[in-house]
Amino acid sequence: MTKEELDPGKIFLLRDFLSNDECAALIRRSEGLTYEVGTVGGMVAEGIRNNERVLVDDTPLADALFRRAVHCLPQVVDHRRLVRFNERWRFYRYRPGQTFRPHRDGSYMTLETYEKSEVTFLIYLNDNLTGGETRFFEDMDQVARRSPYLTVTPTTGAALVFLHAIWHEGAVVESGEKYVLRTDVMYKL
């Protein structure tokens, strides 16, 4: 595994975070579940997002992958210290024509332990597709102009790690299917 800083302090890539076999097994696992249209704020909003997702709570997976990534993750964000991966995983599947328009990821909070997510951890499970890049925008002006400052092409097994507050999108998949596995990195005061 190698860490590649894309926007220092904000966005980085962990190349070869998962093996091809691990990625294939996760895709098979997801296909055994029921994908549904992703929601925005609890509502279907196909003008913003029309990809499909499956939610899975898997603490052993979160613990195992956190141990693999911990030495590369930001240890402190917004005065909070690194704790763990959220056990809630989202498998996303994008088919041709599907996208997730520019947005910022919301934080997940636990009331009982006062943990808050600050960072997105997104693993590309395949790369046999056209399109589907993750595009980053510095501000709403770049979003309006459709002018990203950074574009990341899916690479099987790579983990894309970035602050929730950054505007980004999952570009339209032109051909093939795109599979990703996403969770949150949790922090605590």
Automatic annotation (TrEMBL):
It holds the Pfam family 2OG-FeII_Oxy_3. Keywords: Dioxygenase, Iron, Metal-binding, Oxidoreductase, Vitamin C. GO terms for molecular function: iron ion binding; L-ascorbic acid binding; procollagen-proline 4-dioxygenase activity. Its cofactor is L-ascorbate. Gene3D superfamilies: q2cbj1_9rhob like domain. Residues 84-187 form the Fe2OG dioxygenase domain. It comes from the Bacteria. InterPro entries: Oxoglu/Fe-dep_dioxygenase_dom, P4HA-like, Pro_4_hyd_alph, Pro_4_hyd_alph_FE2OG_OXY. PANTHER family: PROLYL 4-HYDROXYLASE ALPHA SUBUNIT, TRANSMEMBRANE PROLYL 4-HYDROXYLASE. This is Putative Oxoglutarate/iron-dependent dioxygenase. It comes from Candidatus Nitrospira nitrosa.
